[in-house]
Specification:
single chain; mainly beta; Immunoglobulin-like; five-stranded antiparallel sheet; four-stranded antiparallel sheet; 9 strands; elongated
């Protein structure tokens, strides 16, 4: 598990290797990740958008931007957590992801970024 705190918002990420399969005659490696967003600040915040950089050992990095996470824009009061699961496909058994969440502070009405720490994606059979 990797963790990072930005402006009182703690991001924790756990990863899993889900398996391999063929898509368009090419092998793909499926990875899952579970993110927990923990509001350790004194203000209520809302997650508005996400920005991901996905690194595949055999491919060019991919950038993914979008509103919310898995169709939600969670509001977190002080002390509250939001956990969600998602996944990605790589063309190699190794990669990594990193990024940030765009959030808004309800007290100050200011937008701010919360860093998502870099986490590795590794197929269990390929690890030494």
């Amino acid at each position: 598990m990797v963790q990072q705190v930005t402006r009182g918002i703690k991001i924790s990420v756990e990863t899993t290797f889900e398996g391999t399969f063929y898509k368009n005659y090419k092998m793909h490696f499926a990875f899952g990740y579970k993110v927990t967003i923990d509001n350790q600040s004194k203000d209520a915040v809302q997650l508005m958008a996400r920005h991901w950089k996905i690194y595949d050992a055999l491919n060019v990095p991919e950038t993914v931007d979008g509103e919310g996470v898995i169709g939600k824009k969670p509001v977190l009061r002080p002390g509250e957590k939001h956990t969600y699961s998602s996944g990605c496909l790589l063309t190699s058994p190794f990669g990594a992801m990193e990024g940030f969440y765009q959030m808004v502070n309800f007290t100050t009405t200011r937008k701010f970024r919360v860093k998502i720490p870099t986490f590795k994606l590794s197929a269990t059979f390929a690890m030494n």
